[in-house]
Amino acid sequence: MSYRSAYRSQKGQGGAVLIVALVFTLILTVISVASMQSATLQERMAGNTKDVNVAFQAAEAGLREAEAVLSQVSVGPFNGSKGLYLSCPDPDDDRKACSKPNWTDKASKGWFVLTDNIDHVARQPEYIIEEMTKVVGANEVLDSDRAIPTDSFYRVTARGYGASERSMVVLSTTYRRAD
């Protein structure tokens, strides 16, 4: 009588378990690498969003300071110094705004830097104020005993930077001042 083993001999196995294990390991590796790249991308996006948010807040601080300057009794001459410009320096120009702002000219004296220091920025915020035009006040009654009331309009442009100079935000607003 001959006894046969219920188990197969070593010669009969083809290594299918090894191949399945290797394929499974390869799939897990690909999934792991993809999730690491996704996490890295999300970190970069969060950092860039924070950087732009800091730049936006710095530009808003520049706008606030420029509007505080305009709320003073005397602003100063709009001759291109200290960030004060005329919107259209040509008095014969009948347009209300120039096609190219004159402060973008390389010969201009530049922007005015914010007086308060802001932390965690590459450069301090800067602003310019452009005198646009004067308009006779609305809903005013003209009286011969007093001067005609006018309102002056100014365009305030501020730029702020984040932790790097690559993240720059430029904001612009119009300010009305009763004379």
From TrEMBL:
Keyword match Nucleotidyltransferase: no
Domain (PilX/PilW C-terminal): give its ranges: 99-177
Q: Which residues form a coiled coil?
A: none
All copies of the Type 4 fimbrial biogenesis protein PilX N-terminal domain together span 14-64
Family annotation (InterPro entries): PilX/PilW_C (IPR025205), PilX_N_dom (IPR025746)
Q: Enumerate the transmembrane spans.
A: 12-34
Name the chain's protein. Type IV pilus assembly protein PilX
What species does this protein belong to? Spongiibacter nanhainus
